[in-house]
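Human: I hope this is not a bother. Would you mind checking the protein record under this note? Thank you for your patience.
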Amino acid sequence: MHRRTLLSVLFSLSFALTASAQAADNTLKIGAPQPMTGPDAPFGDKFKKAYSLAVEEINAAGGVNGKKIEVILEDHQAKNPLAATVAEKLITQEKVLILTGGRASGQAVEIASVAQRLKTPYLVDHPSADIITAKGFEWVFRNNPTGSIYPQAFNKFISETPGAMPKSAAVIYDNSVFGKTIANSIMTFLKSKNVTIVNDEAYPVNTLDFKPIVTKAKANNPDFVLMVAVSTTDAILLTRHAKEIGLKPRAFVGYGGGFGVADFAKQLETLSDNVFSSAAWSGNPNDPKTKAFYETFYKKFDIYPKEHEVEGYAAIYIIADAMKRAKLTGNLEADRAAIREALTKTDMTTVFGKVKFGNWVGPLGDQYTNQNIYSPEHSVMAQWRGGKLLNVYPKENAETQMVFPEPAKK
């Protein structure tokens, strides 16, 4: 009797393990290193929402060739070394087929190196430093614009709008990879237009007091104040301190990062009014499919999606498309290679815009590998108005008319 019971238990356990293995075989795993705890956790939550909605929709529509997809989130706490550790864990222990995510450029640089070394495709959905797709890594792809493309909408605005070209500019940026990349792009363009840079000020991420920096800028009476902050707290304090000391340029312009999240307006209230952000867009708000996505997202999460959410949602659809076209066999290494190959042939449109990966030269001369060739079209100039970040330029993507110059400088 005891032997029969033992055999029964062993059979049940064997059956359960087999069933579990079969279930795992029917799930296509995507790994996503994101900051789920710590100061950048709100960003991780944005991507979690975006991924979950895309996964829910794709699986409800039959998945990928009959198989479900799954996103496995791993917390890197916004720490660069930990990003490398969790990326390797996702590849070697979780056996994911592909990576996405990263959040900030410093973390993405680490993830990209791991992905290249372990021959696992990595689709960057938000990190923007040019270097990520300028190392010649054939396993790394990026849908979103690079940092040097972020200022493109602003550059077009000041070039195409009579009287908008600044006479002088103060450029204030954090010393992260993200900050230095964008600041370099800004100043290279302005110098080509003979605009005087009266302040070139770098600061450490998570600075608590910007008054010394903005006081220096005020002394030079800059026509424009151009600001880069990967941290939301830095974007808030920099803007608050600049306005509180009476710095009054014709325009305050941020470049994505902390200038593009809801907390910026929530914390600053009316001080956020009319501050610009030139960065990656959130898709074309005048496109019916993109509008429908905005409403679907709002109904599910009670917030309207912006840059981060649209990028994350689009990334899962790009990955699913590549998986559908790849000939997956169940051999992990071969399947990763097949997905990489399928990504090189991607040619589709998502709510974020058109997607086709290619090798080309960026605005600062960087040779990109597997960078979306449509990235230059995906930069937009938005403006905070009454707590909402609304597109104002180019006109075909505008949601409202811009306020320029700042009323105080008219």
